[in-house]
C-alpha cells in the first residue's frame, strides 16, 4: 500500500518516523550488549543461550527496521509530491537516520532518504526568514518544492509484497468461530445441542420447595 499512499497525515507521518526511532534505540542497545567486551566469557559458555537470544533479537529488530525503511522508501519514491507531511517528518527528525547512514545492513535503504533530505534541506537554505522557522513555514517550502521534485536520483527497490498463507484445515478454526459469533450476537440456539465449541450454560434457579 505504501506506494499508493496519498496525503498521509502529520500524526501518521510522525508516528512512522517515531517507530523507526524506537526500533533503532532497541537495536543499538542490543548491538552494544552483544559487542560489549565486558561481557563475561564464562556466561557465554553456558550453552550459549544468552548470546543466541541476543543474536535472535538483533535479527528481529534488523528486519523491523528494514521494513520501516522500505515503507518510507516506497512513499518517497512513488508518492513524494502527494505526501509533504512525510517529508516534513523525516526532516524534523533527520538525526535519527544519521547513525545508520553507513551501516552495512541499512545504508542502501537510506540512500533515498538522504537524497530527499539533501534536496529539501538545500531548498530551505535558500530561503531567508526573519526569526525562527514555524511548522507552517517549513511545510509551505516543502509543498512548493514538491512541485519541482523529479526524483531522478532515487534508487528503485522492489516493492514489498506480502502473501497470506493459509494453514491446513482452516475450517477447524473458522467454522466454530463464525458459529460462536452467531450464537453471541444473533439467533438463539439450544445450547445443549452445540458440540463445535464449549458453551457456558446458565444455571436454572429451581423454584423453592421442588
UniProtKB/TrEMBL annotation:
GO terms for biological process: Golgi organization. InterPro entries: Dymeclin. Keywords: Lipoprotein, Myristate. One of its GO terms (cellular component) is Golgi apparatus. PANTHER family: DYMECLIN. Belongs to the dymeclin family. This is Dymeclin. It comes from Platanthera zijinensis.
